[in-house]
Design brief:
Number of helices: 9
Structural class: mainly alpha
Shape: globular
Oligomer: single chain
Length: 197
């Protein structure tokens, strides 16, 4: 991969990873409701799970959607259903002091599995492989996956930290309920491109 192409890849990955989407909104909500330390498994699930997804897409999984269009429809239905469920969970999250006792953020495995029904994630993986690893050689695919691993580590951590900082301003139940409701609505709003694609 040439230096110019590598620079373009990292620019694309940074834009995709730092902009709001289901993962980032959920990481921010987790930081707000549970703090950074308890959100680390969720963060690692996003970072490692998505990087693995990029590798598998690059090694041929994307061809499945071309060969079996009904698989794409099934993925869309599963994505919408799961994101609506997660939005409902966020909207009903307990205040931070009681969340420590009763609630819990997504686990590593739950966050990793979420990557497979994340519509923005599929768009990012398919686009990055098509643009930056069109030959789908193992080396090119690994370079793309590593770019996501590196940038997602920074961006995901930043979103969790933003959520943790917001937590100080959400000390009463009403403000927290408004925040969680807003995060749930924004998460549902990320479905608009999926529904009309």
């Amino acid at each position: 991969m040439t230096p110019d192409l590598l620079l373009a890849l990292y620019g694309f990955v940074a834009i995709m990873c730092f902009t709001p989407g289901p993962n980032n909104l959920m990481l921010m909500a987790s930081g707000t409701n549970y703090g950074f330390p308890r959100s680390v498994p969720h963060l690692l699930g996003v970072v490692l799970g998505f990087s693995l997804m990029v590798v598998l897409v690059g090694l041929g999984l994307a061809a499945m959607f071309t060969r079996y269009p009904e698989a794409r429809t099934a993925l869309k239905i599963a994505s919408v259903a799961y994101l609506l469920y997660l939005a409902w969970k966020i909207a009903r999250a307990a205040p931070p002091e009681s969340a420590a006792a009763t609630g819990r953020p997504l686990t590593f495995l739950q966050a990793s599995a979420f990557q497979w029904v994340n519509p923005k994630g599929w768009t990012m993986a398919l686009t990055s492989i098509a643009a930056y690893a069109p030959d789908q050689s193992l080396w090119a695919v690994l370079v793309v996956a590593f770019a996501f691993l590196l940038v997602n580590s920074v961006s995901g951590s930043l979103w969790v930290l933003i959520g943790q900082q917001i937590r100080r301003f959400l000390t009463n139940r009403t403000r927290l309920a408004v925040f969680n409701g807003t995060m749930a609505i924004l998460l549902v709003a990320t479905l608009i491109p999926v529904l009309f694609a």
